[in-house]
Amino acid sequence: MRKLLITTLLLTVLLTGCNHDPNENGNVDNHENIVAKVDAQKDYIYISDYSELDLEQLITEAGRTDEFNEFFKKPKSFAYFDYRDGTYPNKKIHINIDSDDARQVEDDLKVINESYEKIRQQGEDLIKKEDIMFTWGGINLYDTFIDDKTISLITYGENFYYPGHIMQDVRFYSFDKETGTRYNNKDYLKSLNLDDSKFQSFLVEDLKNTAMAEGKSIMLVESLDEISNIDDTVIYVSVKESQFLMINNDKLLVNMLVYSAMDGEFTMPYIHEFPLDKLK
Question: Which residue segment(s) compose the domain that 18 sits in?
Answer without folding.
Answer: 2-183
